[in-house]
Amino acid sequence: MATPSEVVLEVRDLVKHFPLTQGILYKRQIGAIKAVDGISFDLHRGETLGIVGESGCGKSTLAKLLMALERPTSGKVLVGGKDIAAARGSELKHMRRNIQMVMQDPYTSLNPRMTVGDIVGEPYEIHSEVVPKGDRRKRVQELLEVVGLNPDHINRYPHQFSGGQRQRIGIARGLALQPEIIICDEPVSALDVSIQAQVMNLLDGLQKEFNLAYIFIAHDLSVVRHISDRVGVMYLGKMVELGKDTEIYDRPSHPYTQALLSAVPVPDPDGREQRERIILQGDPPSPANPPSGCRFRTRCWKAQDICAEQEPLLEIRDKAGDHPSACHFAEAADVVHVN
Amino acid sequence: MIEVLPESAGSGTHGGALLEVDDLHVEFRTRAGVAKAVNGVTYSVSAGETLAVLGESGSGKSVTAQTIMGILDMPPGKITGGEIRFRGTDLLKLPEDERRKVRGEGISMIFQDALSALNPVFPVGWQIAEMFRIHRGASRADAKKKAIELMDRVRIPAAKERVSDYPHQFSGGMRQRIMIAMAIALDPEVLIADEPTTALDVTVQAQIMELLAELQRDSNMGLILITHDLGVVADVADKIAVMYGGRIVENAPVHDLYRNPAHPYTKGLLESIPRVDLKGQELYAIKGMPPNLLDMPSGCAFHPRCPYRQETCTTDVPPLHTISGTRGSACHFWREVLDGDAQ
């Protein structure tokens, strides 16, 4: 992204708390899982924003909020200037045309009793104004061709396809309504290595062809680096660092990002003895009861008293370069490359 | 992983490999036909050595491991040929009660999904202690004490308080530690780790791999690491066997394989992975899909996807050509692959 183009999606202070209740007849709330806790970012036309984080950090809840599959506790998701989180009925239906999703598991996200033609064409049943009835079959075949499947296979069922091909069917369904935004939630993590590359190249090609904006959610940092223009790192419901791919990967400034990156195995045995690993102790704390102040402080080697008292905001800091980082002691350092 | 122990340089105490798999053939008889899962696999591991078995789903890497452990479901599985020698004795010819002694004490295994590998209705301490009660005839109290020691050794915090907890009360990383504790309980000489970190987050993966490396250093175990992750392999392996369609298509010391692969499949894999330290352009993608085990391609199983394909690849199965002392490639055109000129 050399020149920032038009913003297609704005997220402002998005919060989602899932209530924890006790009791059977008289349910009372005893707490909340703070799955997403105050996240803001912009997405520009034609760009890819990667979201990385470990399991339980809230990245999939974020995806559901953006699709309005979950209602936020507070905050806004603006698609083309309108808040999708507040929209209802026909307005919501209309807005959803513009924002589609590709799911993680191609085995469970396709209905086994529907043919490929029915699956890819189903969006047209809901949004019947997009393509007139007589043209739908032809349009579905075009979509299959776009994602690299044989258009003659339109009457086949999902079980007749391999994992990589099923993911292509899911992508074709996502493209059917010609959205501006596609949310990809772990789109390649269920696939074999040699098939992953095929699907990632397809997503790349489609983005250029249709000028799509992607939110690319994954736990695999190498995959995210490959496809993303900008990357956001999440930890326990918070965005801890946000920047261009080179800023995050070559000059990470938040200790969590640094630990995450240094833990990724590099497929090159040369210099493996020199590589220094930051090994975090323990597991992430529960999002029902996150630590006070900075949420990462319980596993952080830089933690001081201030970290428990004051929550660090996601902002640009002196030693951290030009991108925002939510750490009191943020300092850019290259942890991936070995000299 | 930094220091190299003098005895880990190659041969173990028995003047060579501890565990040798020799020309193993395994097939599954199903209603749809005979699936040839393992078609002549040969590999070996010595004390203190780490062998990585690399392959995609359906390549036969896990079936080979299950056959070594003797936990293959038969039927539908059937071993149709080959030998598995542990310290020189063929395990496949041993009666079950002797085989059982090898399991756990000689060779043990950890699995990918710790939640389904552990029994949900028994406390974890009881499951670890079972190893001592059954194999060593230890009393309940002694066995429990040893279980706590082991939980300490795999660094489960507050082992004494957690020994009576159930598997669901632990996180994914901690469960994997419990499984490692069970596997190393009887000081095995060979440990097979089948995708030990695939279900885990990357920071936890780093913790577990460090733990495995440390345990291996302490006890000079031979380690067979089964994985599909080229990054993990590059970090820990001494030598690599790459599997495709139930065969080993390339074996090599780790540095040679990454620097200069000798099989088109290995080469394609290395070029198709995104890397965290480099921003690539378009990824090279291996065309097509892995072979259907019920209907294997004729000749070389990789030929439908191979950029080096010639007439002979469709008819002749390439043998594992020896390239140098420790390297082999099952490709008719390994010289061209090494030189790097694809048609």
Automatic annotation (TrEMBL), chain A:
Keyword NAD: no
GO MF annotations in UniProt: ATP binding
CDD domains: ABC_NikE_OppD_transporters
Pfam families: ABC_tran (PF00005), oligo_HPY (PF08352)
Top-rank taxon: Bacteria
Cited Gene3D superfamilies: P-loop containing nucleotide triphosphate hydrolases
UniProt domain ABC transporter: residue ranges: 9-261
InterPro entries reported in the protein's UniProt record: AAA+_ATPase, ABC_transp_ATP-bind, ABC_transporter-like_ATP-bd, ABC_transporter-like_CS, Oligopep_ABC_C, P-loop_NTPase
Keywords associated with the record: ATP-binding, Nucleotide-binding, Transport
Family statement: Belongs to the ABC transporter superfamily.
Entry protein name: Dipeptide ABC transporter ATP-binding protein
Organism: Microtetraspora glauca
Automatic annotation (TrEMBL), chain B:
Keyword ATP-binding: yes
Chief place where the protein resides: membrane
One Pfam entry name: oligo_HPY
Domain ABC transporter as annotated: residue spans: 19-270
PROSITE patterns hit by this protein: ABC_TRANSPORTER_1 (PS00211), ABC_TRANSPORTER_2 (PS50893)
Keyword annotations of the record: ATP-binding, Cell membrane, Membrane, Nucleotide-binding, Transport
Membrane topology category: Peripheral membrane protein
Record-linked InterPro entries: AAA+_ATPase, ABC_Ni/Peptide_Import, ABC_transporter-like_ATP-bd, ABC_transporter-like_CS, Oligopep_ABC_C, P-loop_NTPase
The keyword Membrane belongs to this UniProt entry's keyword annotation: yes
Subcellular location: Cell membrane
Gene Ontology MF annotations: ATP binding
UniProt xrefs under NCBIfam families: oligo_HPY (TIGR01727)
Family the entry assigns: Belongs to the ABC transporter superfamily.
Name this polypeptide is given: ABC transporter ATP-binding protein
